[in-house]
Amino acid sequence: xxxxTKFKCxxxxxxxxxxxxxxxxxxxxxxxxxLVSGAIADPFAAAKLVSAASSISNPGLRxxxxxxxxxxxxxxxxxNTLIGAHVENDLPVEALALYKRMLAAGLAPNNYTFSxxxxxxxxxxxxxxxxxxxxxxxRLGWESxxxxxxxxxxxxxxxxxxxxxxxxxxxxxxxxxxxxxxxxNGYAKSGQTRTARELFDRMPERNAVSWSAxxxxxxxxxxxxxxxxxxxxxxxSG
Length: 238
Prior knowledge:
Elements lengths: L10 H5 L8 H14 L5 H12 L2 H14 L5 H13 L3 H13 L6 H13 L3 H14 L5 H13 L3 H10 L5 H13 L3 H10 L5 H13 L3 H14 L1
């Protein structure tokens, strides 16, 4: 990948970091130019570099972690980028460790941070971490955000705490298909088929995932006639 002969922190150079074919050697070359020019101190350039490194899976993630340590200025956005990338790459333990570093750096988490942390907690089946993050979410005022609420409901329902999930569900002013389906799956996993069906019947709108969740709920407990009925209902609904 060709680089400008005289590096300047301009959009043309930084646009190289957005190339879908960006490799780790190319990223390291751009990083070197940023260091030599002093442009690494520019928050926008640093953010682009961390984001690009995070997109190159494990080799890039290792470099992104080292890069973050070396930056003179770090932001919540940079930490969120790295935490989210680790969650997406099935590295929840590393994501939680990055959150501790974020707090140690004196940075405040936001709604995006917590959405990633809830997914990391679920990935390692750590209900205790989930409850700890829930308390922080309430204290910092992020509970009203839809994707944070959905993350909490999904965490609790997936971990068998359908009571806690239902409390959040009932309080939620905005319930989308994800919210309803998470609750239905929670009841299904706890063997509460009838409650799952009651909730399913109340859904204002359904998608393929919610239909599949209800069919699977019946199939798992051997109620194949009911599963077929739901399947036929789905076919009729178009």
